[in-house]
Amino acid sequence: MIPKRLLKLDASSIRREVEEELQFHIDMSAREYESRGFSADQARDLAKRRLGNISAIKRECLQISVRKRLQVKLKSILCSIIFALGIVIKVASTDVDVAQMGTVLIIIALSGGLLTFVKILSVLHLVSDRKPINLGLNTDKQSG
Predict the structure, then answer these.
(1) Any idea what DSSP says for residue 95?
(2) CA angle at residue 121 from 116 to 126, to 5 degrees?
(3) Are 103 and 90 in contact (CB under 8 A)?
């Protein structure tokens, strides 16, 4: 069994990230309402109403974030175990075929770690105050 201290998650960090993300959405929505002529207070109230039950959303986001982080930790631990096993087999084996199996385990572990890292990067949100850059990849518009 995996020791609990390896799976321990920083709850205050997760909570802070979720609160910052929700605040970002409220701020962006409020800016939209302000651009339509609402006062700052009205815009903030409308933005909060638009988001819905903030405490329920926060609770759900916390649960999702904890699950995702736990999955990442478990995947990292599994990849580390497979990697270590591969190293041990490769170093300790005198049989070439068995040593190759160690190499395969090392490649599997590294690939799994890389895929986990890439997946984490793919879900990161890069926030900017500027408008999105048009890369000309929109296929809905017909070129003339």
Answers:
(1) S
(2) 165
(3) yes
The pLDDT-based confidence of 127 (bands split at 50, 70, 90) is very low
Q: Does the pLDDT of residue 11 top 90, yes or no?
A: no
Residues 6 or more apart from 53 whose CB is under 8 A from it?
A: none
DSSP, collapsed to helix, strand or coil, labels residue 123 as coil
User: What's the angle, vertex CA 138, arms to CA 132 and CA 140, rounded to 5?
Assistant: 130
Residue with tokens 């409220």: 26
| pLDDT digits 0-9 by tens, 36-65 | 999 999 999 999 998 888 889 888 988 888
Backbone angles phi and psi of 7, in degrees to 5? -95, 0
CB distance 104 to 89 below 8 Å: no
SS3 of 121, please? helix
- 133-139 average pLDDT score: 45
Token representation of residue 27: 């701020």
Place of tokens 């982080």: 69
